[in-house]
Design goal:
This protein is an alpha/beta fold. The chain has helices at 16-25, 40-52, 64-73, 83-91, 142-153; strands at residues 3-7, 31-34, 57-60, 78-82, 96-100, 129-130, 136-137. It has a five-stranded mixed β-sheet. A two-stranded antiparallel sheet has the order 6-7. It is globular, with a radius of gyration of 14 Å.
């Protein structure tokens, strides 16, 4: 199941490249929401942050619904969410999908590019792909992901 990189319509970006440019121009100002620390959605966002070299703050929630609600309201500026959860709000215009994870575009959002098409090659085919045992793997990025996770876990709460 692909994830979608979503932002609120109020955020003045229309592409992943524009989002990266905004984040680099305003280090530490953008927040990304997740359904909780260590979840696949958190790890996808963290891999994006590390791969793109961004300084963004993580806001963990106790579930995806509240995280997505805060992205819609602009309290958080972006998140990765599973496409089935985000799709109704994307179609309603309450969220904007900038890209989807995976090796090919989603048939549900054929006009939305993949992360690799959007210019983030580190998240193309190894976007934390599902393992039969529900493990997560980030081929080629294990060292960077491990460093980012260790750093995140050692932050003061």
């Amino acid at each position: 199941m692909p994830n979608a990189l979503i932002v609120p319509p109020s955020l003045p970006v229309n592409s992943v490249r524009e989002l990266i440019a905004m984040a680099k121009a305003q280090p530490g100002k953008l927040n990304y929401a997740s359904s909780g620390t260590g979840t696949s959605l958190h790890l996808a966002a963290e891999l994006f942050r590390v791969t793109a070299g961004l300084d963004m703050q993580h806001i963990p929630y106790k579930g995806g619904a509240q995280a997505q609600t805060d992205v819609m309201s602009g309290q958080a500026q972006l998140m990765f969410n599973v496409l089935p959860s985000a799709l109704p709000q994307i179609r309603a215009g309450k969220l904007r999908a900038l890209a989807v994870t995976g090796k090919s575009r989603s048939s549900a959002l054929p006009d939305v590019p993949t992360m690799i098409e959007a210019g983030v090659p580190g998240l193309h085919g190894h976007y934390l792909e599902r393992h039969p045992r529900h493990g997560r793997y980030a081929e080629g990025h294990r060292r960077k992901l491990n460093e980012a996770l260790v750093k995140a876990m050692n932050r003061p709460r």
